[in-house]
Amino acid sequence: MKKLGFYSAFVLPLLLISGFYLGGIGFSLIHIFVFILVPVLDFFIRKDQENVPENQIPILTKERFYKLVIFSWVYVQLAVLVWGFFVIANRSLSLSEWLWFSSGMALVTGGVGITVAHELGHKAGKLEQFYAKVLLMTVCYMHFIVEHNRGHHVRVATPDDPATSRRGESFYSFWWRSVSDGYLSAIQLEQQRLEKINAKTWSFRNNMILFTILPLLFVGVFTVGFSLSQSRVVWEIPVFFFAQSILGFSLLELVNYIEHYGMERKKLPNGRYERVTPLHSWNASHTVSNFLLFQLQRHSDHHAFAYKPYQILEHHNDSPQLPQGYSAMIILALVPPLWFRVMDKRLETWKTEVIGSIQ
Fold first, then answer.
1. Per-residue pLDDT reduced to its tens digit, 295-349
2. What is the spatial distance between Cα 343 and Cα 336, in angstroms, rounded to a whole number?
3. pLDDT value at position 64?
4. How far apart are CA 127 and CA 38, in angstroms?
5. How confident is the model over 84-116, as pLDDT tens digits?
6. Given a cut of 80, is residue 358 above it in pLDDT?
7. 164: Cβ–Cβ under 8 A, 6 or more apart, which residues?
8. Cβ atoms of residues 287 and 183 within 8 Å
9. What is the pLDDT of residues 258-269, one digit of tens each?
């Protein structure tokens, strides 16, 4: 049953497509599912706090099923996005319909797509790395694979990490800092890599140059193709593509904001920070949202052991626990006074009960 649960993410593209053809309120089906139905199910269904038995870990790690699920998503997402281009190029949508459709696409490409790219981007295989970059290309966030792996995982829960939200910082302030500083950090990290191999910054060996060009090339090919077929400039496609991209990576930044809010690692006498442990990320073991996000919410274990594939990530009782899954927490994060009221108190309680007992 747990295996089948990981296929639940594929409900999102089905809702987006069926909602479009239903019309009217159908445009919001995917939003209702993600932001209303999923939180309700998370609330009523028992949390999944069980971990894979130690003797089963090697078996599940090698089982091809789990790789097949996320590989399949790559092709589904590409197909749905191209279908979205077709819709935008051939249908006249009202402003409200366009907004519902663009944000619905972002839930597919950003909500699940970036989650899958994150999982694949942590793998060493060339195919996995390629698929991760393809998915990130569809939301104009290819630099994430540089900054996240070589920056965020090294600097998480420190003032040096753009993707770690500070206590008392609203999501809106965090968004700008994380997006801009994360991009600049990726440029610096790539320059450092090039220096080590004695390669020129201004060359196609610089991934940041390729990561900037490829999304433009991708949308350009489809814009030209549809424009030629319709004998007009189909400007709607690039507008739609960049809009859903911004919304898509904003979902990623919302998740970043939630995952590390107020987390801090101690600075040691030698100037370095203590090693990353499950105590430096918020954890959530809500069943339904974890199926949709391939157990991304077991983020505490992911940061402590980044090499682990999603199917064997563990729940840690001592980690700070979110009151709800990401779907509900995203809504809360968009309303700063409510977020601070709920999360600041929870953060202090956890620090007193867990961190205080350790010290």
1. 999 999 999 999 999 999 999 999 999 999 999 999 999 999 999 999 999 999 9
2. 10
3. 94
4. 32
5. 999 999 999 999 999 999 999 999 999 999 999
6. no
7. 152, 155, 156, 157, 158, 256, 260, 263
8. no
9. 999 999 999 999
| Tokens describing residue 12 | 């999102």
Q: Is 198 left (phi over 0), alpha (psi -120 to 50) or beta?
A: left
- Structure-block tokens of residue 152: 């965020």
Residue 321 has phi, psi (to 5 degrees) of -110, 130
b/e 165-177 (16+ beta carbons within 10 angstroms → b) = beeebbbeebbee
- C-beta separation of 286 from 325 below 8 A: yes
Which of 304, 256, 209, 240 lies closest to 91 in space, CA to CA?
240
Distance (Å, whole) CA 240 – CA 306: 34
Contact at 8 Å (CB) between 278 and 304?
A: yes
Burial environment of residue 120 by CB neighbours within 10 A (0 to 12, 13 to 18, 19 or more): buried
Q: Comparing C-alpha atoms, which of 152, 341, 147 is closest to residue 260?
A: 152
Q: What is the DSSP letter of 123?
A: S
How far is it, in rounded angstroms, from Cα 20 to Cα 87? Answer: 9
The set of residues, in sequence order, having a beta carbon less than 8 Å from that of 225 and lying 6+ positions away, is none
Residue 308 neighbours by CB under 8 Å, 6+ apart? 301, 302
Q: Is the pTM of this model over 0.85?
A: yes
> d(Cα 321, Cα 339) in Å, to the nearest integer?
15
pLDDT (0 to 100) of residue 359: 58
DSSP state of 165: P
Tracing tokens 């682990």 back to the chain, one arrives at: 308
Neighbours of 49 (CB within 10 A): 14
Q: Write the DSSP assignment of 68-81 as a string of letters.
A: HHHHHHHHHHHHHH
d(CA 44, CA 223): 45
Residues above pLDDT 90, as percent of the chain: 96
Q: What 3-state DSSP class applies to 273?
A: strand
Mean pLDDT of the chain: 96
Q: How far apart are CA 87 and CA 84, in angstroms?
A: 5
Instruction: Please report, in angstroms and rounded to a whole number, the separation of the first and last CA atoms in the chain.
Output: 41
